[in-house]
Design a protein that fits this description.
eight-stranded mixed sheet; alpha/beta; Rossmann fold; globular
């Protein structure tokens, strides 16, 4: 009877969102975690983490370093990346931390880094880097900054590193956001120019919804190649990005926010645990499979999924028929960054 009542209480609290995404939700969910899942040794494994110098990214680096992985921290600001690597190294005793400068929003930079890292097997690629600007910014590739950072850049990096991931039978983890539940897939809205008023929160949620769909598309298209594609959301975590991009939200919720390590727990689990290996194409929250469209009318059609795939290939300069085959030229004409 007690277990039944506990299960009913969990169902009610999870439906409330607040008491699921917050720190108490994590601690309730953690009661079902099996500690044996992370009884692992990642010595000799290579893990790439974008946005690795703070928040969930840095917590992910710390978690995987504790298991002995060689972690390559892909950071837009190399100096901050080295500061974070020194901090994590002192905490974990790891000497296998490397920092590589990467601006995920710059597709030329993505190609440069992918070329440098593709010569050896990649066991795990964690797409954590993300931005939530309050105004429209256009990248050198002609893309809106949120779209380029949160979606197109990760898609291109995965595509270019796919042979290295296949050699290792590796894993790709996409860090989404609970905010994606508020939006349905809107390819036209994602790639639209500057005609409509820009809403950074909506665009962020759209990119995170599309990232989950992308993870499913990759799992479907590349089934059988040995690579596991996963997406997850970390709940509400107290990170520098939340404090900076959503100051009002942070002010209201700071007393109940998860720690970065609690937010990163499922990322580490997906990257390291044996039980998560091979479970491709699923969306995860607190180490459990989660629905992607619990809110009515947020599902997408097959045509919309195909449109996303075509738009991403065009933006990234890839051959739609073969995600690893880059065309001779960039997907879009590069231009000066501006508002």
């Amino acid at each position: 009877m007690r277990s039944i009542l506990s299960g009913l209480l969990d169902t009610v609290l999870d439906a409330s969102v607040v008491f699921s995404f917050d720190r108490n939700g994590y601690r309730r969910h953690a009661r079902r975690f099996d500690p044996k899942d992370l009884d692992v040794d990642l010595s000799g494994k290579t893990v790439l983490v974008t946005g690795a110098n703070s928040g969930i990214g840095k917590a992910t680096v710390r978690g995987l370093a504790l298991f002995g992985a060689r972690v390559v921290m892909l950071c837009r600001n190399e100096a901050r990346g080295r500061e974070a690597a020194d901090e994590v190294g002192a905490q974990t005793g790891s000497r296998a931390l490397e920092v590589v400068s990467l601006d995920v929003s710059d597709l030329g930079d993505v190609r440069r880094v992918a070329a440098a890292l593709s010569g050896e097997p990649v066991d795990v690629l964690v797409h954590n880097a993300g931005v939530l600007p309050d105004r429209r910014v256009t990248t050198l590739d002609g893309l809106e900054l949120t779209l380029a950072t949160n979606l197109v850049g990760p898609y291109l990096l995965t595509s270019l590193l796919l042979p290295a991931l296949e050699r290792a039978r590796g894993r790709v983890v996409h860090v989404s956001s609970g905010g994606m539940y508020t939006q349905r897939l809107d390819v036209a809205g994602l790639f639209r120019g500057g005609d409509e008023p820009f809403d950074g929160v909506v665009q962020y949620a759209r990119t995170k919804r599309a990232l989950v769909v992308l993870s499913e598309l990759l799992a479907e298209r590349l089934a059988g190649n040995g690579v596991t594609f996963s997406a997850m959301h970390p709940g509400w975590a107290d990170t520098p990005a939340v404090r900076t991009a959503l100051p009002r939200f942070h002010a209201v919720t700071k007393a109940i926010l998860r720690t970065p390590s609690e937010g990163a727990d499922t990322v580490v689990w997906l990257a390291a645990s044996q039980v998560a290996g091979g479970q491709s194409g699923f969306f995860w929250f607190d180490r459990a499979k989660a629905a992607t469209t619990p809110v009515p009318r947020t599902g997408e059609t097959g045509e919309e999924r195909a449109a996303l795939r075509a738009a991403l290939a065009e933006a990234a300069g890839l051959d739609l028929a073969a995600p690893t085959a880059a065309r001779t030229g960039p997907g879009r004409k590069r231009r000066t960054r501006g508002s």
